[in-house]
Amino acid sequence: MDTKQSLSELIAQAIAESFPQAENLPSAGEIAGFLEIPPEKEMGDYAFPCFKLSRTLRMGPPQIAARLAEAIDAGDLCQARQMGGYLNFFLNRENFARRTLEHVLASDGRWGAGEEGKGKTICLDFSSINIAKRFHIGHLSTTMIGQSLRRIFDFLGYKTVAINYLGDWGTQFGKLICAYKLWGDRQEVERDGVEALTRLYVRFHEEAEKNPALEDEGRRWFKAIEDGDAEALELFNWFKELTLKDTQRVYDLLGVTFDSYNGEAFFNDKMGRVIDELKAKNLLTVSDGASIVDLDEEKTGMPPCLILKKDGATLYATRDIAAALWRKDEYDFDKCLYVVAYQQDLHFRQWFKVVEKMGYEWAKDLVHVAFGMISYEGQSLSTRKGHVVFLEDLLLNAIYKARSIIEEKSPGLENKDEVARQVGIGAVIYADLQNNRIKDIDFSWERALSFDGETGPYVQYTHARCCSALRKAEGLDPAEPDYSALSDDYAQELLRLLSRFPETVREAAARYEPSIVTRAVTELCKAYNKFYYENRILEENAGVREARVRLTRAVRDTVRTGLWLIGMEAPERM
Ligand code: ARG
Description:
The chain is of the alpha/beta class. Helix content is 54%, strand content 10%. The protein has 22 helices and 13 strands. The chain has helices at 7-17, 28-34, 51-57, 61-71, 93-106, 140-155, 171-183, 186-192, 194-210, 213-226, 230-254, 271-280, 297-300, 316-331, 345-357, 391-409, 416-433, 445-448, 456-473, 489-510, 515-534, 542-565, and strands spanning 46-49, 78-83, 86-91, 121-125, 159-163, 284-287, 290-293, 305-308, 335-341, 366-371, 374-376, 379-380, 441-443. Strands 5-4-9-10 form a four-stranded parallel β-sheet, sandwiched between helices. The longest helix has 25 residues, at 230-254. Bound molecules: arginine. Arginine binds next to strand 9.
C-alpha cells in the first residue's frame, strides 16, 4: 500500500480490486473521481454511485452495490455498506487518525515529498529582469511563482534549473552608453546604481526629441557593443553589474536564488544555428525584406513569427528559440517552463510552434506559465505615467509596517527585527500567490498585513500557535496516544486535510499552480484554529493530550512545509 495515498484513493483502489470480472471497468483513478461526499452524516463519509458501472456490468445499481459490499476489503480504515444504489463508506475515525499521524510524523517534516521526479530535469525561466531597469512590482509574480514551482518540483525529486534570462540585449543599451558618454558621471552612477542609469535614459529621450541625430549615435554605440568594441563592452558590463547588484538586494530579501544568469546576450553567438536550421528545413521566407516563419494563420490564428529584421538583426523570438535549443542540449530537460506575464502569450505560442515545425518533438515540453497583472492599491502600474512601485521599496515598507504591528501586538518578543522581516516579506509573497496565477491581483496593504482571514500573517501566526502549544507540552510525561480522542469533527477535518496534502502538492505541480498549496495551507490553518478553540491541547488525561500534541505537531510540520513551498518563512514565535 502506498503510504501517500489519501483516503479517497484508498477507497477507490479497494473498489477497483473487488470488481466482478468484466471488461472496460474504470481505473482506480477514475473511481476516485466518482466518489461523493454524502449529504448527511448518517450516510457515512464517502459514497460510490454504482450506476456508473451499470452499463459495463449490465446490472442494476443496487445489485452492484450489494456485490461490492460483500467482496470489498477496505482494511481497518472503513466499513462499506450498501445503501440503495450506493456503496457507502463509514470511516473508522480512530484508525484513520492513527494511520494519518503515523505517516505524517514519520516523514520527518517532509510530508508530501516524493521521488517521482528522480532523473528528470525541469528548467524554469523566471524573474528574467531587464538590465538598467529597476526591479518593480510587475516582476514580483514571475519571481515568486518561479521560486515556488522550483521548490515544488525539488520536493518531488526533480532536478531543477532556475534561470534568470536577463534582458541584456537591445538598442536601448546603445542609447544608454551614448547618454552616459555625454552627461554621465562615474561617481554618481556608482552611487545611485540603476536609479542613475534610468535618469540618463530618460534624458536621452528628452534630448533626442530636440536633436534626432542622437538616435544615430545611440545606434552606433549599440553596433559597437555587437562588434565587441572594448569601450562599449566595458561600459555595458558595468551597467549589467550595477543592475545585478541592485536586484541582488531584492533577491536576498525574497530568499530567491538562481542557477544561471545566461540572458539574451549570451545567445548572440548562438543564433547562426537557428537561421541555418530554419533555412535548411525550408521554413524561412522573406517578406518585405524581413525573414519570417509562416505559421498558417488561417488555421492557427497566429501571424508569422519574425526571425530577422530587414537589417539582419535578430529578434526576441529568435533569441528564445536559440536559448531553447541550447538548454535542451545543455540540460536535456523534461520540461522547460517560462514564467512570464500573460501579455506575452502570442510570442510564446508563436515560437513554440516554430520549434515544433523544426521537427523537435520536445516542443511539447515547452510551457508558458502565464500570470495576470498586478496593480497597487487599485492603481494600475505604468512606467510611462510614472505609477511605478519598486519592489525593494515595497518589501522594505512591508517589513517596516510589520515591525510596528509586532511592536503593538507582542511588545515582549525577542528578535523583533527578524520576525518583522519574515512577516513583512511573507505578507507580500502570500498576497501574490493566493489566487490562481492567471487572475489579476490588486495589492493592498490593509489586506496583506491583516492577521485575520486569508493572509500571510494569519497563516504564520497559526504556525507560531502550534509551536507555542508544543513548547508547553515539551516537559510533560510521555504517554501512549489515545487516538480515539481525535474522533470529533474538528480533528477529523484536520486529519482529512493532512492526508490530502501529498495529493495537493502533486496537483500544484501538474497545473504549475502554487496557489493550490497556498489554499491548502490556509485551509489547514483555519481548521486548526477551530480545533484549537474546541479542544484543550494540554489535557490532563495523558493519552488524550498525547494524541492532540501529535496532531498539533503534524499540522505545524505541514504548515511549515507548505509555507516553504510557496517561498515563505515560518517564525516560531510572533
Ligand atoms: N525580460 C523579459 C521581460 O521583462 C522577460 C523574459 C522572459 N523569458 C523569456 N525566455 N522570454 O519582459
